[in-house]
From TrEMBL:
The active site is at D263 (proton acceptor). Gene3D superfamilies: 3.40.1190.20. This is Ribokinase. Pathway: Carbohydrate metabolism; D-ribose degradation; D-ribose 5-phosphate from beta-D-ribopyranose: step 2/2. ATP binds at N195, G262, D263, N287. Its main location: cytoplasm. Substrate binds at N23, M24, D25, G51, K52, G53, A54, N55, E152, D263. One of its GO terms (cellular component) is cytosol. GO terms for molecular function: ATP binding; metal ion binding; ribokinase activity. The gene is rbsK_2. Its EC number is 2.7.1.15. It is an enzyme of class 2 (transferase).
Length: 314
């Protein structure tokens, strides 16, 4: 086993805040998805903790971050299970609210034998997290190095988080997922990290070649973020910081299930950027995290730990 790569300026536990969704995925396996009006029997059903916010919090915690989750669960049976899952990953949940008379965020994921799926997302308590809640929780941002946000909570809530982080001098990473039209103020971040379809949903155009990715990264940068990292799956990541544009390649893996590759990437960028101060170095390392996640099945179960990422780098 190789020794971990460390950097002279690296601090032991970067402090990462994650403002985002917390969901329970109900994964239903059946031979064939039902057509409208049809009833089918399932072979199995499993409860799998998910939600982009929670996934990224778990990713950052496994990468060695001291992580605080800012979010909202419901007062149904899933709420406590979702909190316990985060607590098991040593994530600080003191800023996770419980909405009364409200269901937790749910995703009903039906998967048929062919691998085809159909997903219904119920935002539930995630939609209850308001800008006022964030303003009341301002102290949750104060002592952090990096805030991570995504778009599975309402945009005014995300904006309140970005503004609170800015006031506290905290770096902000926006993963604009799922693909959406964004209000202009949301671009006032230190890094935006869309995948290919999210990037084109924002600035339009087609992204096929590496040249397209470079062009789209520049168009995204013109919207306001200090840096842009477009994740290009097996091709790696296109990084543009306003001065240098560069494709940072990933490693070759046998991709089994790319679910949560982007979440593994985002969590790793946050931790490594906070630890080293080098965005380029953080993205190199995060590419490895994304590749490892793509080489394993599932969402949270596939998120790699720091030592595994370090081993993949040698
Ligand atoms: P998302 O899951 O958001 O669509 P991507 O699929 O682009 O995000 O993956 C995020 C990062 O993970 C990529 O930039 C890349 O570094 C790494 N990655 C993902 N899939 C692979 C793969 N098949 N081979 C190598 N690296 C991968």
């Amino acid at each position: 086993m190789s020794s971990p790569v460390t950097t002279t300026h690296e601090r032991s536990k970067p402090k990462i805040a994650v403002l985002g969704s917390i969901n329970m995925d109900l994964v239903i396996r059946c031979d064939q998805l039902p057509r409208p009006g049809e009833t089918v029997s399932a072979r199995s059903m499993s409860e799998v903790p998910g939600g982009k916010g929670a996934n990224q919090a778990v990713a950052a915690a496994r990468c060695g971050g001291a992580v605080r989750m800012i979010g909202c669960v419901g007062d149904d049976g899933f709420g406590q299970k979702l909190l316990n899952n985060l607590l098991n990953e040593s994530i600080d949940c003191s800023a996770v609210l419980t909405a009364q008379a409200c269901e937790s965020g749910l995703a009903i994921v039906s998967v048929e034998n062919s691998g085809e799926n159909a997903i219904i997302v119920i935002p539930g308590a995630n939609a209850r997290l308001s800008a006022e809640d964030i303003q009341r929780a301002e102290s949750a941002f104060a002592d952090c190095d990096v805030l991570m946000v995504q778009l599975e909570t309402p945009q005014p809530t995300v904006l309140a988080g970005i503004q609170a982080a800015k006031r506290a001098g905290v770096k902000v990473i926006l993963d604009p997922a799922p693909a959406a039209t964004l209000s202009d103020e949301l671009f006032d971040v230190d890094l935006i990290c869309p995948n290919e379809s999210e990037a084109t949903a924002i600035v339009g155009g087609r992204l096929e070649s590496i040249e397209d990715a470079a062009e789209i990264a520049k168009r995204l940068h013109a919207k306001g973020p200090a840096a842009v990292a477009i994740t290009l799956a097996a091709r790696g990541t296109m990084l543009y910081d306003g001065a240098t544009i560069e494709l940072i390649p990933s490693i070759k893996v046998d991709a089994v299930d790319t679910t949560a590759a982007g979440d593994a990437f985002a969590g790793a960028v946050a931790v490594r950027w906070a630890a080293t101060g080098s965005l380029r170095q953080a993205i190199q390392w995060a590419n490895l995290a994304g590749a490892l996640a793509a080489s394993r099945a599932g969402a949270q179960p596939s998120l790699p730990a720091r030592q595994q990422i370090d081993s993949a780098s040698s």
